[in-house]
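Batch manifest line 355
LIGAND: manganese (II) ion
JOB: complex structure
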Amino acid sequence: MSKKYKIAVIGGDGTGPEVVKEGLKVLEAVSDKYKIDYETVDYDFGGQRYLKTGEVLPNSAIEELKSFDAIYLGAIGHPDVKPGILEKGILLRLRFELDQYINLRPVVLYDQKYCPLDLGQNQKIDFTVVRENTEGLYCGAGGFLRKDTTDEVAIQESINSYKGVERCIRYAFEYAKNKSKDKKVTLCGKTNVLTYAFSLWQRVFDKVAKDYPELKTDYAHVDATCMWMVKNPEWFDVIVTDNMFGDIITDLGAMIQGGMGIAAGGNINPKGVSMFEPIGGSAPKYTGKGLINPLAAICAVSMLLNQIGQEQAAKAVEDSVKKVVQEKLQSLGAGRMGYSTSEVGDLVVKNIIDN
Ligand code: IPM
Ligand code: MN
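JOB STATUS: finished
ARTIFACT:
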């Protein structure tokens, strides 16, 4: 008998549940076609639940979620909840406690007409950012001195461990070796100023690179990376970087691939449970209007399928999204697609069935 996958679904806040609904519709269609057996279990973590019960994430949830094959997440962030509570209490806590040490963010432009850049004929945007996902400035190390006085000092420390850096860089090299187009890994850092943190990154990068003599390597400071992403995005193949820089450059990456409506990411624990999400926020102003673009959430389903070893189904979803983007949509932005949220989901499903 074939395996029955268990998928935890956290719709979350704002437009999260709407886009997840479309993603699940696509998952159902593709699973039907490729005979994938799965069940989903819904979790109501998010702003609503917090406002009602005062609980962000029950401790038992972490252990429970470890028993799943994957987690599918919509969005976290509620306008009535102070910034940081849900982000740290749900999203970051899950990333840390499930040790999802890679944040994998592909930046692929399916059609030049959605790119805000004036790309030349041969310029293609197709690269992947491997963002470290459990350390750096995100650890919460630091504190205040003399808080709420004019002598206040706020310290926020970047934590970089040899083990944390090594496993992230090694993942990037493995990814480039097996999956990337140009077999090239670029370290994105700031070795000219952050001479402790990125000295470690650079030394580990050089050491790991020795195990992959067939791969090309490169280095770019983070500011220059932003410049090159706009000027010559085709230069990049796999970019590996720390948590904060990865957060920033992947928003820029999302824009050059057509916007938040299409950008997906995976929080990966290669030996544990991984979590897939559209990388945009909960977009509260669009909630319930059927205007939000579900393609990022649908691309997250494709990444999820890849991670659980259903590569064919993953590719079918990606190909279908590509076709919808190239042949149907007017824009990838909310309210400007020429179709409603659920109609876009239907278009993706139709391609999967027809192909
Ligand atoms: C992201 C988001 C999160 C991050 C926030 C919501 C905590 O911006 O997934 O990129 O900073 O990692
Ligand atoms: Mn971000």
